[in-house]
User: Fold these one by one.
Assistant:
Number 1:
Amino acid sequence: MEPADLPPPASGSSAAQQNAEPPNAALPNAVPPNPGPADSDAPTPAHKPSKRRDNRAAAMQFLYMWDLNRGEDLVATLDSFFKTQDHPREYFAFAEELIRGALAKLDEIDALIKKLAHNWAFNRIARVDLALLRLAIHELLHRRDIPPVVTINEAIELGKTYSTPDSGRFLNGILDKVKDSLDRPARTAEKT
C-alpha cells in the first residue's frame, strides 16, 4: 500500500464531507519538517512544531490510513509509510510507539469512543477526528509519562490543522471525559 497526499489541511469542510471519502483516500498532508531540536511536549511557537507534534501528526496520518486499509500487513505498511516521510524512521520512534500502542488497544479505545460520543453514530465521526481520538485516548490511558492536558491540547491543535473548525470542540468534549476518569493528575507526568 502506498500512502498518498490528501488535499491541504481542512479549512471549513464539514464532517459529512470528510466521511464521504473514497475507500482509498489518502493521508492528510504531513506537517512541515521540524526546524529545531525540540523533543519534548513543552509548548513551542506555532511556526516551530516540536518533534513530538511531528510524531503525533505522523501517528494520526498512519491511523487514518490504517482505518481505510485494514487487513494489510502492519510491518510492511509501517515500512512503506515511514519511507514517505521527510525524516528518517528513527526520527519517528515516538510515532511508532503510539501507532503500535493504539492499534494493540483499538477495540478498547473504540468501545470508549462509542460510549462517550453522545449523539454521534461511530461511523459518522470524521475519519481524521477518529484517528485523533484513537491516538489521544491511547496516550491518556496508557502513556502515564505524558500529562493528560498536553495530550488533549496536542489533539486539539492537530484537529485545527487537519480537520474541521468544529473539530476542537468535539475532540475536547470526549477527551475531557476520559481525562476526568483517570486516576492521576491532569497536569503532570509520571517519571518512568
Number 2:
Amino acid sequence: MEYSLLAAARGDLPVALRLANQAVTIAEASMKAGQGGDNYLASALVPRSEIDRQLGRADDAVADATRALYLLKKSEEPGTFSCDLGHAYYTLGRALQTQGKPNEARIAFRSASENLRDTLGPDHPDTHQAEFEATH
C-alpha cells in the first residue's frame, strides 16, 4: 500500500490503483486463510477509494469507503471514536460528492468531523477540513 500511496503522490494514478488492488488482494487472501487482516484491508480500502474517486470511478470509491467503514465498525466498540473511522467517513463523503449526492456527503463529513475531533483534536487540519466540508 505504501508503494500505491507513493505512486498516487507522483500523480501516477493507474499505477497507484494497480498497487492498491494488490494490497487489497493480499489482505483478502489473509482473511480467507484465517490469518486476520480486517484492519489492514480497511486501511487499504480507504486510499484505494480516494484513487478510484480521482480516476472518476465514483461508484467504486463509494463501495470501497463503505466496505472500509463496515470493517472498522465491526472491530470497534459501538460509540467509540476513531481517527481511522474519521478518515474513512471523510473519504466516503468525497466519493459521495463525486457521485452528486451532497446531502449524503454532508452526513459522512459530519461523522468524520466527530471522529476526528474526538481523536485528533479540534485544531487538527483533518478535523478542520471535515468540519468545513460538513457545513458547505
Number 3:
Amino acid sequence: MNKNLKFLSYAGGVAVLLLLVCAGCGSKQAPGDVMAVVDGHNIYRADVEKYYQNQIAGSGGETSDEQAASTRLTILRQLIDNEVFMRQAEKLGLLATEDEVDRRVNEIKAPFSKEEFEARLRDKKITFDDFRRDVRRSLTVDKVLNKEITSKISISDKDITDYYNAHKAEFNFIEPQYHLAHIWVTPMPNPQVHNLRNDKAQNESEARKKIQMISNRLESGEDFATIAMNFSEDTDTSGNGGDLGFTPESSLRNTDAGTREVISKLKPGQYSPIIPVISPVNKQAIGFEIVKLLAKEPAGQRELSDPRVQLAIRDQLRDRREQILRAAYDDVLHSHAKIENYYAESMLQTNGVKP
C-alpha cells in the first residue's frame, strides 16, 4: 500500500472527518450556533461546516441549496453518532489515554517527513489538534468495540466445518479468482434502491457529487464495507458491505478495458479510484463505482485443512456477526441517549430551504 493510502487509513477504518466534537463542550455560545445536543453535549455549526467543506472538496460544479442541506444533515447525523458512542466510552472508562494517542500518532507520522505530513493535513483541511482528537476517538472506538462486541464473538471449529460442507463448491477454483467488493452509484432514478441511509442520487450531477463524497470518506479512513452498506446503490450487495464474491479471471476479462486495468493493478486490501461506467450505446455515464480487491486466489480446490480456507471462513463468519452486533449496539446506545437535533427540526419548519 503506498504512502498516501497508509496515511489516509490511519484511523483503522474510522473517518478523519468525524472528529471528536466534545472539545468545545461546556462553552457558552448563542443557540443559533448549536445544531444538536447529545446528552447535554453540544454539536456546533462550525464543526458541521468544517466537514461539509471537506466532503465537497473536489466534487466540482455548483451545489444546490437542497443538496447542501442534505449533505449537512448527513454530516450532523454522523457527528451525533460519534457523540453517542463517545459518551458510552466515557461511562465504561475506555477513553484512550495520552500515551496511547502519542504512540499511534508517532506510528502514523513515521513514514513521512515533517513537510509531507503537514501537507497532508492541509490537503484534508484539518489541524494537528484535529488529527490528534480523531486518533483519540479511533482508539477509543476500537477499545469499546473490542470489549463490548469483538471479545464476545466466538467462532467454533464446528461452525467452520459446517460452513465449508455447505459451501464446498465456493472453494473449488477452476481458474484464478478475484474476491471483489464495490460501491455503486447511478444517476438512474430507481425507487427500489435501498441502503441503510435510503440514499439515492437522482441525476448525474448528484451521482458525481455523491461518489466524490464517498471517495473522500474512504480516503479519510472510513471502512469500505460500512460505507457500502450506508450509501451503495447496488441493492444486491449493499446489505453485505458491497461484497461481490469471487469473480473468475475470465469474467474479469469481459469487463471494459479501463475497469479491468484498474482492478489488475490492485493488491489485496486496496481499492480503486472512482471508475466511470460508460454506456457503449450513447457514451454517457450510467454509473460510478469504486472497487476493492479483498483477495486473489489461484485455481484449484481448497480443502478444509487449508489454513487459508479456515481463516477465510472464520473471518467471514466473524465479520457477519460483528456487523449485526455493531448495528444492534448502535441502536441500543441511541435508544438510551437524549438527542435533540435542532437543525433537522429547523429544516421541517422551513420546508427544507434553510441552508
Number 4:
Amino acid sequence: MTDPLAKVAIAHDYLTQRGGAERVVLAMLRAFPNASVYTSVYVPDETYPEFVEVDVRPTWLGRIPIFRHDHRLALPFLAQAFSSCVVDADVVICSSSGWAHGVSTRGQKLVYCYTPARWLYQSDKYLGGASYRGAGPVMALMRPLLIRWDRRHAQSAARYLTSSTSVRERIKRIYGIDAEIVPPPLTSQLGGPQTEVTGLEPGFLLCVSRLLAYKNVDAVIRAASHLSGRRLVVVGDGPDRTKLALMADARTTMIRQASDQELNWLYANCAGVIAAGYEDFGLTPIEAASFGKPSAVLRWGGYTDTVRAGRTGVFFEAPTPERIAAAMTELLNHRWDHTVLVSHAGAYSEGAFVDRLRVEVERLAENVQKRDRSRHATRTE
C-alpha cells in the first residue's frame, strides 16, 4: 500500500479563466485536498473562487502585470517558465493543454492531457481572430523550438491520461504515447440551487463558451438570427466579446459571467444547447443532458464521444450559420426522452473520476517510494 503521506502536487497551465479545465483541477483538488497548485499566472478574480482556499504557486510570469491582464501574451515565455518550475512531490498531476507537463520534479509526472498544444499543432484554428493579437507572429517564429521542447517534455511523463478518443489519437500521432481515456467529471456544482436570470423566458437556445475564434460563436449568433421568435443566450467572456456583441441582434442575450446558480437555471430552462467549437472533449452537452436537455454540436473531436445522435443531440457537419441553423431546427422539432438524457450524463460522475485518479496516483507514488528505498539501501551498503 502507498504511504498515505505521499506528497501530491498539481501543475496547471494558467488560472486566469473559468473553463472546463479549471473545473477539472477543482475535482483533482477534491481528490487530493492537500495538494499545492503550480501555475504560470494566477488571477483570482478571473477564475473560480474556490482557488482562494488553495495553495496556488504562480511562476515569475505572474508578477508581470501585462500577463495577469492577458495571459495569452505570455505564450512565448511559458515553456521557459514551466521548465524552471521545480515541484517537490512524489507525484505531480499535470493538467495540461500545452505547458504544465514541462515542470521538473524529483517524483513522477501523471499528465492529464486535454490536447497537445493547439497553438503548435492546430495553429490555424487557435491563433486566429483577436484572441492572440501580437503573440501569434512571435509564436510562429518560435514554433520549431517549442515543438522540440514540447515533445521532449511529453516523454518525461510516467503516464498519460486524456479525455476522448480523438485526443488519444492525436497524442499517439504527435508524441507516440499510448494514453488512456478517463473522461473528465461532470461538475458537482450543477444540479444545485437555481437563481433566475431576469429578463429571460424559458425556451431559449443556450451557448456556453469562452469567446475565442476557434469556438465559432460568431457562426452560432448568425445561425440564431435565421430562427424567428427564438432567443439565443450566450454565456461566456473572452477576447472576441466586443466583435460578437456588435454582430448580435436584439434576440441575442450575452452574459459575460454566470454564477453556478444562474447557470443551473439557464440549463434547466433552455430548449437546448448549441456548441460549434473545435472541442477536445465537449463537456457542455453532458452538463445539458444532466438537466434533460439536448444539444446541437459540431461533429468534431470529443463531441463524437459525448453526444449520441438522436438520443442526446444532433450533429452538424461544419460550423457554418446555415448548417447550425438547420441543426437548431432539428433539435427544436425532435421529441427528447428526459430519462435517456439524464442517464447519459450520469456516466460522467465526479466520483468515478476521483476514484480513477487516486488509483493512478497510488501506483506512481508506490514506484517513487520503491525507488527511494532502493537508493537508500544502496547508500547504506
